[in-house]
Amino acid sequence: MLLPTLRSAASTFRHARRFLATHAPSSSFTPAVQSIQPSQDEITSGRLAPRNMQTALEALHEDGIIMLQDVVNHDNLDKLNARMTADAKYLASLTDGPYNYNRGNIQQDPPPDPEMWFDDIFTNKFAIDVTTALLGGKPKMTFCSGNTALKSAESQPVHTDSDFAHPKIPFALVVNVGLVDMKPENGSTELWLGTQSMAQPDAQVTTHGDRASGRIKEELLEKRKAEAPQKGPFQPVIPKGSIVLRDLRLWHCGKPNTTEVPRVMLAMIHFAPWYRQEGIALRLEFPKGMEPLLSHPALDIPADFVDPPVKYLERAFGNAYDFNQRD
After folding, report:
1. What integer pLDDT is reported at residue 210 of this predicted model?
2. What SS3 class is residue 310?
3. Euclidean distance between CA atoms 266 and 1, whole angstroms
4. Residue 38 in contact with residue 48, Cβ under 8 Å?
5. pTM of the predicted model, to two decimals?
Protein backbone atom coordinates (compact mmCIF):
# COMPACT_ATOMS: atom_id res chain seq x y z
CA MET A 1 0.00 0.00 0.00
CA LEU A 2 1.33 3.42 -0.88
CA LEU A 3 2.04 5.95 1.82
CA PRO A 4 -0.86 8.41 1.97
CA THR A 5 1.40 11.40 1.49
CA LEU A 6 3.27 10.14 -1.54
CA ARG A 7 2.71 11.98 -4.78
CA SER A 8 1.47 10.00 -7.73
CA ALA A 9 4.04 9.18 -10.41
CA ALA A 10 4.07 7.70 -13.86
CA SER A 11 4.25 3.92 -14.00
CA THR A 12 7.26 4.12 -16.29
CA PHE A 13 10.58 5.05 -14.72
CA ARG A 14 11.48 8.72 -14.92
CA HIS A 15 14.86 10.08 -14.00
CA ALA A 16 14.74 13.46 -12.29
CA ARG A 17 17.44 15.62 -10.80
CA ARG A 18 15.59 18.07 -8.58
CA PHE A 19 16.87 20.90 -6.44
CA LEU A 20 15.17 22.81 -3.64
CA ALA A 21 15.20 26.54 -3.04
CA THR A 22 17.60 27.55 -0.30
CA HIS A 23 18.69 30.56 1.71
CA ALA A 24 22.25 31.43 0.76
CA PRO A 25 24.65 34.38 0.78
CA SER A 26 24.13 36.84 -2.05
CA SER A 27 26.14 35.70 -5.06
CA SER A 28 25.73 34.52 -8.61
CA PHE A 29 25.47 30.94 -7.30
CA THR A 30 22.58 29.21 -5.59
CA PRO A 31 23.74 26.25 -3.48
CA ALA A 32 21.24 23.41 -3.16
CA VAL A 33 20.85 19.89 -1.87
CA GLN A 34 20.31 17.48 -4.72
CA SER A 35 17.00 15.65 -4.43
CA ILE A 36 15.44 12.44 -5.72
CA GLN A 37 11.74 11.67 -5.68
CA PRO A 38 11.15 7.94 -6.18
CA SER A 39 8.77 6.89 -8.95
CA GLN A 40 5.68 4.73 -8.48
CA ASP A 41 7.65 1.63 -9.50
CA GLU A 42 10.40 2.44 -7.01
CA ILE A 43 7.88 3.00 -4.22
CA THR A 44 6.30 -0.37 -4.95
CA SER A 45 9.65 -2.18 -4.94
CA GLY A 46 11.11 -0.19 -2.04
CA ARG A 47 14.33 0.31 -4.00
CA LEU A 48 15.81 3.00 -6.21
CA ALA A 49 16.12 2.14 -9.89
CA PRO A 50 19.68 2.07 -11.27
CA ARG A 51 19.63 5.60 -12.70
CA ASN A 52 18.39 7.19 -9.48
CA MET A 53 20.86 5.11 -7.47
CA GLN A 54 23.66 6.45 -9.64
CA THR A 55 22.39 10.00 -9.02
CA ALA A 56 22.36 9.39 -5.26
CA LEU A 57 25.88 7.96 -5.20
CA GLU A 58 27.26 10.71 -7.42
CA ALA A 59 25.71 13.36 -5.15
CA LEU A 60 27.22 11.72 -2.07
CA HIS A 61 30.60 11.58 -3.79
CA GLU A 62 30.50 15.20 -4.98
CA ASP A 63 28.50 17.02 -2.29
CA GLY A 64 28.47 14.57 0.62
CA ILE A 65 24.67 14.69 0.86
CA ILE A 66 21.48 13.59 -0.94
CA MET A 67 17.78 14.05 -0.19
CA LEU A 68 15.07 11.46 -0.84
CA GLN A 69 11.65 13.11 -1.01
CA ASP A 70 8.22 11.77 -0.02
CA VAL A 71 9.43 8.52 1.51
CA VAL A 72 8.03 8.79 5.06
CA ASN A 73 4.40 8.64 6.18
CA HIS A 74 3.27 11.99 7.62
CA ASP A 75 0.96 10.38 10.17
CA ASN A 76 3.89 8.45 11.65
CA LEU A 77 5.95 11.63 11.79
CA ASP A 78 3.13 13.48 13.56
CA LYS A 79 2.76 10.78 16.22
CA LEU A 80 6.47 10.69 16.95
CA ASN A 81 6.73 14.48 16.88
CA ALA A 82 4.01 14.89 19.52
CA ARG A 83 5.90 12.57 21.85
CA MET A 84 9.34 14.00 21.21
CA THR A 85 8.21 17.63 21.42
CA ALA A 86 6.92 16.93 24.93
CA ASP A 87 10.22 15.24 25.78
CA ALA A 88 12.14 18.22 24.36
CA LYS A 89 10.34 20.63 26.64
CA TYR A 90 11.25 18.47 29.62
CA LEU A 91 14.92 18.33 28.59
CA ALA A 92 14.96 22.11 28.06
CA SER A 93 13.74 22.59 31.62
CA LEU A 94 16.77 20.84 33.10
CA THR A 95 19.54 22.94 34.61
CA ASP A 96 22.21 20.82 32.96
CA GLY A 97 20.47 19.38 29.93
CA PRO A 98 21.96 17.51 26.95
CA TYR A 99 23.11 20.64 25.12
CA ASN A 100 25.39 20.50 22.10
CA TYR A 101 27.54 23.65 21.99
CA ASN A 102 24.70 25.91 23.25
CA ARG A 103 21.37 25.72 25.09
CA GLY A 104 19.38 26.17 21.90
CA ASN A 105 20.52 22.83 20.56
CA ILE A 106 19.89 19.60 22.45
CA GLN A 107 20.63 16.00 21.68
CA GLN A 108 17.48 13.98 22.16
CA ASP A 109 16.89 10.24 21.80
CA PRO A 110 13.61 8.94 20.40
CA PRO A 111 11.47 6.92 22.80
CA PRO A 112 12.33 3.20 22.74
CA ASP A 113 8.64 2.37 22.53
CA PRO A 114 7.25 -0.25 20.12
CA GLU A 115 4.28 2.04 19.41
CA MET A 116 6.72 4.74 18.28
CA TRP A 117 9.01 2.49 16.22
CA PHE A 118 8.01 3.12 12.61
CA ASP A 119 9.91 1.20 9.96
CA ASP A 120 9.65 3.97 7.37
CA ILE A 121 11.35 6.33 9.84
CA PHE A 122 14.00 4.23 11.57
CA THR A 123 14.73 1.54 8.98
CA ASN A 124 13.58 3.18 5.79
CA LYS A 125 14.05 0.91 2.77
CA PHE A 126 15.33 3.67 0.50
CA ALA A 127 17.82 4.89 3.08
CA ILE A 128 19.18 1.38 3.61
CA ASP A 129 19.28 0.84 -0.14
CA VAL A 130 21.57 3.84 -0.60
CA THR A 131 23.78 3.27 2.46
CA THR A 132 24.28 -0.36 1.42
CA ALA A 133 25.26 0.67 -2.10
CA LEU A 134 27.79 3.20 -0.81
CA LEU A 135 29.17 1.42 2.25
CA GLY A 136 28.88 -2.18 1.04
CA GLY A 137 27.72 -5.37 2.71
CA LYS A 138 25.28 -5.00 5.59
CA PRO A 139 25.69 -1.58 7.27
CA LYS A 140 25.67 -1.28 11.06
CA MET A 141 23.31 1.18 12.78
CA THR A 142 24.98 1.82 16.12
CA PHE A 143 23.65 5.32 16.76
CA CYS A 144 19.99 6.32 16.98
CA SER A 145 19.35 9.74 18.47
CA GLY A 146 18.23 13.18 17.39
CA ASN A 147 18.99 16.86 17.28
CA THR A 148 16.37 19.33 18.50
CA ALA A 149 16.57 23.05 17.81
CA LEU A 150 14.92 25.17 20.51
CA LYS A 151 14.16 28.87 20.25
CA SER A 152 17.53 30.56 20.35
CA ALA A 153 19.73 33.22 18.77
CA GLU A 154 22.92 31.15 18.88
CA SER A 155 24.60 29.05 16.21
CA GLN A 156 26.87 26.08 16.64
CA PRO A 157 30.41 26.46 15.33
CA VAL A 158 30.96 24.96 11.90
CA HIS A 159 32.21 21.46 12.64
CA THR A 160 32.52 17.88 11.51
CA ASP A 161 31.16 14.88 13.40
CA SER A 162 34.33 13.00 12.44
CA ASP A 163 36.42 14.65 15.15
CA PHE A 164 39.24 12.08 14.99
CA ALA A 165 41.68 10.59 12.51
CA HIS A 166 39.32 8.81 10.14
CA PRO A 167 39.46 6.94 6.83
CA LYS A 168 39.84 8.93 3.63
CA ILE A 169 36.88 7.12 2.09
CA PRO A 170 33.20 7.15 3.09
CA PHE A 171 32.72 5.03 6.21
CA ALA A 172 29.49 6.34 7.74
CA LEU A 173 26.29 8.06 6.61
CA VAL A 174 23.97 10.01 8.88
CA VAL A 175 20.30 9.33 8.14
CA ASN A 176 18.42 12.51 9.08
CA VAL A 177 14.62 12.55 9.31
CA GLY A 178 12.91 15.83 10.20
CA LEU A 179 9.61 15.35 12.00
CA VAL A 180 8.37 18.62 10.48
CA ASP A 181 9.36 20.81 7.54
CA MET A 182 12.92 22.00 8.17
CA LYS A 183 13.72 25.52 6.99
CA PRO A 184 15.90 28.44 8.05
CA GLU A 185 13.17 29.82 10.31
CA ASN A 186 13.18 26.73 12.54
CA GLY A 187 16.87 25.96 12.31
CA SER A 188 17.61 23.80 9.29
CA THR A 189 21.24 22.71 9.39
CA GLU A 190 23.78 24.91 7.60
CA LEU A 191 25.70 22.87 5.01
CA TRP A 192 29.10 23.14 3.35
CA LEU A 193 28.81 20.92 0.30
CA GLY A 194 31.77 18.87 -0.84
CA THR A 195 33.79 19.24 2.37
CA GLN A 196 33.59 15.58 3.38
CA SER A 197 37.14 14.98 2.14
CA MET A 198 38.48 18.07 3.96
CA ALA A 199 37.59 17.13 7.55
CA GLN A 200 40.90 15.56 8.64
CA PRO A 201 42.22 16.53 12.10
CA ASP A 202 44.58 19.19 10.75
CA ALA A 203 41.48 21.16 9.65
CA GLN A 204 40.01 21.09 13.16
CA VAL A 205 40.68 23.39 16.10
CA THR A 206 40.46 20.46 18.52
CA THR A 207 39.69 16.80 18.02
CA HIS A 208 37.77 14.32 20.15
CA GLY A 209 37.97 14.96 23.88
CA ASP A 210 37.27 18.69 23.88
CA ARG A 211 33.63 19.60 24.57
CA ALA A 212 33.42 21.58 21.32
CA SER A 213 35.58 19.22 19.31
CA GLY A 214 35.46 19.03 15.54
CA ARG A 215 35.38 22.81 14.97
CA ILE A 216 36.82 23.80 11.61
CA LYS A 217 39.58 26.41 11.61
CA GLU A 218 38.32 29.87 10.73
CA GLU A 219 40.92 30.46 8.02
CA LEU A 220 39.77 27.29 6.24
CA LEU A 221 36.15 28.42 6.37
CA GLU A 222 37.03 31.73 4.76
CA LYS A 223 39.15 30.02 2.13
CA ARG A 224 36.35 27.59 1.26
CA LYS A 225 33.79 30.39 0.92
CA ALA A 226 36.08 32.27 -1.43
CA GLU A 227 37.02 29.26 -3.56
CA ALA A 228 33.65 27.48 -3.81
CA PRO A 229 30.73 29.90 -3.19
CA GLN A 230 28.45 27.58 -5.18
CA LYS A 231 28.91 25.01 -2.39
CA GLY A 232 27.65 27.17 0.47
CA PRO A 233 27.36 27.74 3.30
CA PHE A 234 23.56 27.73 3.13
CA GLN A 235 20.47 26.47 4.93
CA PRO A 236 18.22 24.24 2.81
CA VAL A 237 14.48 23.73 2.94
CA ILE A 238 13.79 20.05 3.65
CA PRO A 239 10.11 19.11 3.22
CA LYS A 240 8.41 16.90 5.77
CA GLY A 241 8.44 13.28 4.61
CA SER A 242 12.00 13.51 3.28
CA ILE A 243 15.13 11.69 4.35
CA VAL A 244 18.56 13.28 4.08
CA LEU A 245 21.67 11.11 3.86
CA ARG A 246 24.84 12.96 4.90
CA ASP A 247 28.46 11.85 4.93
CA LEU A 248 29.55 11.90 8.59
CA ARG A 249 32.62 13.92 7.60
CA LEU A 250 30.75 16.85 6.01
CA TRP A 251 31.20 20.30 7.53
CA HIS A 252 27.92 21.61 8.96
CA CYS A 253 26.48 23.87 11.61
CA GLY A 254 23.34 23.86 13.77
CA LYS A 255 21.49 27.15 13.35
CA PRO A 256 19.00 29.01 15.59
CA ASN A 257 15.32 28.18 15.66
CA THR A 258 13.52 31.54 15.69
CA THR A 259 10.08 29.99 16.28
CA GLU A 260 8.41 28.93 19.52
CA VAL A 261 8.06 25.30 18.38
CA PRO A 262 10.90 22.79 18.92
CA ARG A 263 12.21 21.36 15.66
CA VAL A 264 13.10 17.70 16.06
CA MET A 265 15.41 15.98 13.59
CA LEU A 266 16.31 12.32 14.05
CA ALA A 267 19.83 11.11 13.37
CA MET A 268 20.62 7.46 12.75
CA ILE A 269 24.16 6.58 11.68
CA HIS A 270 24.93 3.68 9.34
CA PHE A 271 28.56 2.53 9.48
CA ALA A 272 30.33 0.40 6.90
CA PRO A 273 30.49 -3.27 7.95
CA TRP A 274 34.29 -3.12 7.78
CA TYR A 275 34.50 -0.13 10.12
CA ARG A 276 36.12 -1.25 13.37
CA GLN A 277 33.99 0.69 15.83
CA GLU A 278 34.31 0.84 19.56
CA GLY A 279 33.04 2.92 22.45
CA ILE A 280 29.73 3.93 23.93
CA ALA A 281 27.90 4.03 20.59
CA LEU A 282 28.67 0.39 19.86
CA ARG A 283 25.27 -0.92 20.98
CA LEU A 284 21.78 0.54 21.28
CA GLU A 285 19.45 -0.14 24.20
CA PHE A 286 15.80 -1.13 23.98
CA PRO A 287 13.28 -2.75 26.32
CA LYS A 288 12.78 -6.48 26.21
CA GLY A 289 10.01 -7.38 23.78
CA MET A 290 11.30 -5.17 20.96
CA GLU A 291 13.68 -7.81 19.63
CA PRO A 292 11.57 -8.62 16.53
CA LEU A 293 11.35 -4.93 15.57
CA LEU A 294 15.14 -4.58 15.65
CA SER A 295 15.80 -7.68 13.56
CA HIS A 296 16.38 -6.52 10.00
CA PRO A 297 17.59 -8.56 7.01
CA ALA A 298 19.58 -5.70 5.43
CA LEU A 299 20.74 -3.67 8.46
CA ASP A 300 22.79 -4.82 11.43
CA ILE A 301 21.43 -3.18 14.61
CA PRO A 302 23.57 -4.22 17.60
CA ALA A 303 21.36 -3.81 20.66
CA ASP A 304 20.93 -4.81 24.27
CA PHE A 305 17.43 -5.57 25.49
CA VAL A 306 16.81 -4.69 29.12
CA ASP A 307 13.96 -4.73 31.58
CA PRO A 308 11.73 -1.67 31.14
CA PRO A 309 11.52 1.19 31.67
CA VAL A 310 14.49 2.36 29.63
CA LYS A 311 15.72 5.74 30.89
CA TYR A 312 16.24 7.13 27.40
CA LEU A 313 16.14 10.77 28.50
CA GLU A 314 19.15 10.26 30.78
CA ARG A 315 21.61 8.96 28.21
CA ALA A 316 25.01 10.36 27.34
CA PHE A 317 25.16 13.05 24.69
CA GLY A 318 27.51 15.08 22.54
CA ASN A 319 31.03 13.80 22.15
CA ALA A 320 30.53 11.25 24.92
CA TYR A 321 29.85 9.15 21.83
CA ASP A 322 33.17 8.17 20.30
CA PHE A 323 32.79 7.11 16.66
CA ASN A 324 36.47 6.27 16.27
CA GLN A 325 37.55 2.78 15.34
CA ARG A 326 40.06 0.32 16.77
CA ASP A 327 43.58 0.16 15.43
Report:
1. 66
2. coil
3. 25
4. yes
5. 0.90
